């Protein structure tokens, strides 16, 4: 029990009297949920001091926001400096908050954020590999693109400070923005739909891969240089702007989306639970560089009871960190599918009792990818390939049978931070489908 709320498989089930609302328009269940802290032992975010978010907020630091301007104000008043505002605060999001909303309430578009010296047409003409060659763009037009990105960053990147809880009321959406948790310890984010954090000014990287790639900057949510962050019961999606509908330039898809929930730049002690990642390409990057340095001993993350549905890669991709991946449900397939779990440099992944439903053309051998890693521990996982019955599967054996070099089977650690029993893998799709994502909490 949490107060008078019963916790059932990660969701809060309220008694019949929960509909009563206070003067602030919030039900007592919403107010109680806003002060809920992460349970002891619930993943890496429970390590050290634990994760309490804004639970200690005074009454004047409890806010209901409906616009970008109100969200910035609730976070401290100045988006440029809010990341240092450590005052405990609880913020409820109501309706759709759009990162492109100007202070006057009008919605901006990409043209409003572009530097006067930048245009996509000019960029495409100048840096066409047939004209420019296979070298990185440079010069005044590329500098204008960089200035345009800076304009968008100031507008659509919303900075969160320490000791903050953000909860979505029913139907709440953060659209067209990046929720940035950078140097901000002790943050809780729950029950929100994150949609379409589009980059207006993607960069052409001609040496990225054999044919080059377009790369975008903005994640739906980013955790950097922070500890004790709990991300729970959210939905991450491209909304009505899927990558599949975007044009092709220089023979490559014009990618305007980056990650869903990236954990990078020495961040650590993160728990992501009961989230739904829907129809996205890049989902979760844990560690952003192969450089051996500050990330060593960091990037400890727990993923449990999340749904990855129609997603293509980075589920997650891991460097350096000890990452506990258990009781997650994967529904994967399609020609664009890349891999599920990326085993990167010095990573230590522990994957237990996950369930994979695989479409035609995807097999268990496709679920791992070697990004210069060497080992993982895996046990109790199940997979259903095509129309075959679900069955136990060794991800490691399936991978090693078709790839060289082999991955080793001992990541060198055993998770201890788990707040409840680990479900048998056959039950995982039923539980996760019913409980993961925004809208499952009673607010």
TrEMBL record:
GO terms for molecular function: lyase activity. The keyword Transcription regulation does not apply. Keywords: Carbohydrate metabolism, Lyase, Polysaccharide degradation, Secreted, Signal. Residues 1-20 form the signal peptide. Its main location: secreted. Residues 113-362 form the Pectate lyase domain. Coiled coil: none annotated. SUPFAM superfamilies: Pectin lyase-like. The keyword Lyase applies. InterPro entries: Pec_lyase, Pectin_lyas_fold, Pectin_lyase_fold/virulence, PEL. It is found in: Secreted. Belongs to the polysaccharide lyase 1 family. This is Pectate lyase.
């Amino acid at each position: 029990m949490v107060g008078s709320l019963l916790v059932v498989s990660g969701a809060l089930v309220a008694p019949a009297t929960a509909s009563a609302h206070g003067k602030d328009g919030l039900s007592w269940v919403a107010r109680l949920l806003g002060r809920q802290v992460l349970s002891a032992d619930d993943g890496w975010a429970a390590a050290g001091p634990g994760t309490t978010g804004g639970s200690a907020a005074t009454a004047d630091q409890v806010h209901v926001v409906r616009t970008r301007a109100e969200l910035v104000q609730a976070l401290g008043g100045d988006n440029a400096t809010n990341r240092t505002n450590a005052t405990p605060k609880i913020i409820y999001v109501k309706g759709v908050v759009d990162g492109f909303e100007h202070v006057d309430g009008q919605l901006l578009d990409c043209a409003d954020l572009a530097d006067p010296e930048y245009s996509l047409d000019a960029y495409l003409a100048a840096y066409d590999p047939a004209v420019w060659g296979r070298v990185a763009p440079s010069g005044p037009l590329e500098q204008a693109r960089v200035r345009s990105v800076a304009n968008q960053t100031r507008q659509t990147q919303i900075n969160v400070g320490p000791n903050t809880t953000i909860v979505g009321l029913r139907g709440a959406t953060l659209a067209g923005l990046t929720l940035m948790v950078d140097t901000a310890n002790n943050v809780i984010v729950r029950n929100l739909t994150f949609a379409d954090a589009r980059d207006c000014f993607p960069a052409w990287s001609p040496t990225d891969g054999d044919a080059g790639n377009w790369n975008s900057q903005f994640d739906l949510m980013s955790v950097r240089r922070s500890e004790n962050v709990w991300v729970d019961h959210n939905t991450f999606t491209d909304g009505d702007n899927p990558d599949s509908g975007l044009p092709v330039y220089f023979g490559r898809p014009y990618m305007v989306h980056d990650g869903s929930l990236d954990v990078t730049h020495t961040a650590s002690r993160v728990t992501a639970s009961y989230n739904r990642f829907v129809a996205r390409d890049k989902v979760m990057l844990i560690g952003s560089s192969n450089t051996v340095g500050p990330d060593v001993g960091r990037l400890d993350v727990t993923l449990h009871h999340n749904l990855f549905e129609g997603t293509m890669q980075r589920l997650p991709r891991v460097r350096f960190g000890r990452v506990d991946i258990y009781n997650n449900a994967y529904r994967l397939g399609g020609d664009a599918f890349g891999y599920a779990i990326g085993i990167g440099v010095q990573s230590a992944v522990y994957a237990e009792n996950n369930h994979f439903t695989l479409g035609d053309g995807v097999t268990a051998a496709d679920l791992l990818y070697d990004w210069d890693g060497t080992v993982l521990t895996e046990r109790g996982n199940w997979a259903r390939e095509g129309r075959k019955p679900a069955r136990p599967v060794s991800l490691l054996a399936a991978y090693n049978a078709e790839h060289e070099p082999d991955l080793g089977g001992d990541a060198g650690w055993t998770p201890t931070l788990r707040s409840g029993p680990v479900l048998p893998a056959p039950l995982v799709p039923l539980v996760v489908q019913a409980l993961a994502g925004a809208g499952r909490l009673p607010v």
